[in-house]
Amino acid sequence: MSLDDLLERASSSDFAKYRPGPVVDAVNALHPLGKDGALAAIDRFLAARDLDADPHQGLFLVLRVLFEVDADAHPPMRLGGSMPDTPPTPSSLPRFPIVLVDDLPLLLVSGYVLGGEPEPLSVHLDHYRQHGKLRARPLAPPALAPAARMAKLEQLYRAAYQRDLSGSEREHLLAQLASVP
Amino acid sequence: MRQHQQRGVGEAGRSDGGGAGEAAAGKRTLTEGMADAPQAAAPAPRMPTTLQAESGGPVPGPAAIGGGDGDGEGGVLGGEATNMSTGDLAAATWSDHGQFKWWIKWVTDGTEGWIVQKITNTYSGTKKDGTAITNASVGAVAAYYEAWEVDKAGGITGSLGKTGNRDRWERPALGEGSKGSWSMTGNVYWTASDPAKSGMTSGGVKNAGSLLSSTSAPKDLSAELMTRTANGVWDSTGKAPTHAGKAK
User: Fold this and answer.
1) Which H/E stretch holds residue B202?
2) In a 3-state reduction of DSSP, which class is residue B107?
3) Does the structure show a pLDDT above 50 at A120?
């Protein structure tokens, strides 16, 4: 599969159907290009697409997995209101709405409530260009039973929100875990 | 995912302040016709009113000036919007589990000012686990204001120039086993006063994305120019999920 094919697979804005595999593949295909090469590849990919028709919001998630930042948390994704919301202490889930559990990027949010206009990808691309550092290694999620990963996620979630996952949040995450071989 | 392509009774296309017409189910709506038609030219920007002070008296500020016709020479002021309508960028669609999407662009004769929309949200229902669906539970703010800037030539942007002439109304899917209802109302105004000076900030309200937004009304709003509404009732508890509503 070409890099563009991998970016296309990972770029879906339909977060209700998010699966971590395409994001892992896209991040690992971009990583060998280095910081500038990865950002240039994403720029080229987006330049060939009509972002007004399809904003390719999945690439927000690719960026916050591919890069590290010095700040407490990655820049907020201004796509609307969400449940759960950004944690009260952003550093508790610095890649929110993504949570990395043993190198597997899991998405907490299944969709956004929007009455307005989401921020464009270009804002985050500029941010990572100025402040981002490429992750040290490609992603290598080990083979783990879904229950084991879920237990780790629940611990992180409880620490961030002082409550347990809701039923619908748990279902959304279990579907993601079930998709991982 | 199934999409219930019911665009609702009523126009989701050009709906001006005079109220939208009704389209019977199965008939071609204005929105569908617009999707095939060439893009209509935006109305020509109105020439701003030229002011000349008399006998050294004070010149009224922009907020007090209505639109008018002039030759554009001399003192240049913005043209207050007298007409506001929308055109679909993506027709309203109601999908499974309460999911909804409707994207529009603004069409106005105003120049050098701001389109301000007050959004009012409602949500009720239950999720599969029996928990209540409310505005707060889905991350919806009950009411807020958001703004788009209109420049001298009538060009419309949002988010301090970072986004284009678009307003996107979206509701997320709330899962199998959920059911409930939702509504959105957009009351649309004009102002010649910079909403940022009233405290509106980019991303001020999360539901507005990165638009200038606030839960407080900015100053100097005109009379309401148009009202937009969308609503839906969904039931994902049975064998076949349903979701239907109206948007105009």
Assistant:
1) strand B201-202
2) strand
3) yes
Closest alpha carbon to B21 in B34, B8, B5, B40: B8
* CA dist., res. B120 & res. B140, Å (int): 9
Q: How many CB atoms lie within 10 A of CB B36?
A: 7
Token digits of residue B68: 């008018």
Nearest CA in chain A to B175: A168
Residue from the list A82, A110, A119 with its beta carbon closest to the beta carbon of B159: A119
C-alpha distances in angstroms, B44 versus A62, B35, B109, B145, B153? 42, 22, 7, 27, 8
| Cα B71 from Cα B41, distance rounded (Å) | 22
What is the pLDDT at residue B78? 73
Cβ distance B142 to B215 under 8 Å? no
Partner-chain contact B206 A80, CB within 8 Å = yes
Chain segment B98-137, per-residue pLDDT in tens = 999 999 999 999 999 999 999 999 999 999 999 999 999 9
Measured distance CA(A68)–CA(A135) in Å, rounded: 6
What is the pLDDT at residue B47? 40
Give the separation between CA A143 and CA B243, rounded to whole angstroms: 39
Residues of chain A positioned with their CB less than 8 A from the CB of B209: 78-80, 114, 116-119
- Which position has the higher pLDDT, B183 or B2? B183
Residue with tokens 């707060």: B136
CB proximity under 8 Å: A 110-129 to B: 110-120, 122-123
Whether the CB of A172 is below 8 Å from some CB of chain B: the reply is yes
What three-state secondary structure class fits B213? strand
How far apart are the C-alpha atoms of A118 and B101, rounded to whole Å? 13
